[in-house]
Amino acid sequence: MRHDSKRGIGPIDVVVAAGLTLVVMALIVPAVRDARAAARRASCVNNLKQIGLGFHNYTAANDVLPMSQTAGARGVADAHGTGSTVFTALLPYMEMAPVYNSYNFSLENWHVVNDTVTRTTVTVFLCPDNPDTEGTPAWEIRYPESKATFAKGHYGANWGGGRGAWGEDFVKEKGTYLGVMMTVISPDGMVNAKDGRPRARNVGFPGITDGTSNTLAIVEKQDSFGWAVGGWGGSEFDVNTTPAYEGNDPLARKVYTGSPHEEGPNAAFCDGSVRSLSPKMDKKLWYALITRAGGEVVRFEQ
Questions:
Q1: Does residue 261 lie in a domain region?
Q2: What distance in Å separates the CA atoms of residue 31 and residue 302, rounded to the nearest whole number?
Q3: Is residue 51 part of a domain?
Q4: Which residues contact 214 (CB under 8 A, 6 or more apart)?
C-alpha cells in the first residue's frame, strides 16, 4: 500500500505564514519609513547648501550679503518697489535667472505684474519633509486689495532680532539687528549701532567678526507667508528662546524657526556649512549663533 506524501495547506500553516509576514512587515516598515525620512532630511540639507552657495555667489559679486527684504521709507505712500526678498535676490545666483528676470523690481511684490513670479513654486525653498506647501493669498497677509498669491517657503534669513513675546528675551539680552541679512529701512537705517555705523545695514563677510562658521545665515521655519514675502513671517526669522518653536500658534510658526525633522531644524551657516540645530540647544549657544559680532566663545559640539 502506498501513502501519498502530498497534503494540502492546513489552518496551522496559514497562521504560521501570516505570523511570519507580520513579523517581516514589522521589521521592514519602520526601516523604510526611517530611510525615507533620512532621504527627505538629506534633501533639505542639500537645499540649504544650494542657498548658501547662492549667497556666497551674491556676496562675491556685490561685496555684501543681500537684504532680507527691500522696503521704502515709512509713511511714504508712493514708495514703489518694496517687498522683494533675500530669496528673490539670490535667484540669478542659483541658476534661476529666468524667474529673476521676470520680476519687476520697480513694483511691489504683491503687484499683479509680479504674480507670475511670486506664485512660482521653487523646490529649493521647500523642505521635502514639510507637508505645508499651499500658497498664501496676498489678502491673508497685509495686502487686502491684491489678488496675488505667494508660493510657500520653509527657510528664513537671520536678521538678528525678535518681536513679540517669544523674541523679547533675545532683545533684552542682546539687542536687535545683530544678524547678517536685514531690512534696511528708515529710521532704523539711520540709527547707529555701537560701532558708529547704521544698525540696519548690508553686512559683508568682514563684518562677521564672530566667524562665518559660528554665525547663522538661513534656518528652517515650519511655515511662512512665502519665499517672496519680505520681513517677518516671510523671508526673515525672529529669535525664539530655542531653535525649534514647538507650539501651535499659526503666526509663530511663520515667524520663528522650527522643523518637522526630529533632529531639529537644519541651518546654513555663513561659511556655507549646514548643520542640524538641536531643539534642546543651550540658549546661550543659540543666541551666540545669531550674532555676527557678539564676541561670544562658541563651542558647537553637534
A1: yes
A2: 24
A3: yes
A4: 269, 288, 289, 298, 300
Q: Where are the alpha helices (DSSP H) in 63-153?
A: 86-90, 97-101, 115-118
Q: Hey, what's the cell of 202? A: 548690508
CB burial class (10 A; 0-12, 13-18, 19+) of residue 297? exposed
Query: What domain range is 270 assigned to?
Result: 35-290
Higher-confidence position of 28 and 207: 207
Q: Is residue 300 part of a domain?
A: no
pLDDT digits 0-9 by tens, 46-57: 999 999 999 999
Q: What's the number of domains the chain is made of?
A: 1
Give the tens place of pLDDT for each residue, 111-137.
999 999 999 999 999 999 999 999 999
Given CA atoms 291, 269, 191, 72 in this order, what sign does their dihedral have? negative
Q: Which residues contact 265 (CB under 8 A, 6 or more apart)?
A: 219, 220, 221, 243, 244, 257, 258, 259, 276, 277
CB 102 within 8 A of CB 117: yes
Other residues' Cβ atoms within 10 Å of the Cβ of residue 207: 16
* Angle at 177 (CA atoms; ends 273, 142), nearest 5 degrees: 100
Neighbouring CB atoms inside 10 A of 107's CB total 16
Mean pLDDT value across the chain: 86
C-alpha cell belonging to residue 300: 558647537
CB 162 within 8 A of CB 252: no
The three cell numbers of residue 222 are 515650519
Given pLDDT bands bounded at 50, 70 and 90, which one contains residue 194?
confident
174 in a structural domain: yes
- pTM of the predicted structure, to 2 decimals: 0.84
Please, which residues bridge with residue 223 across strands? none
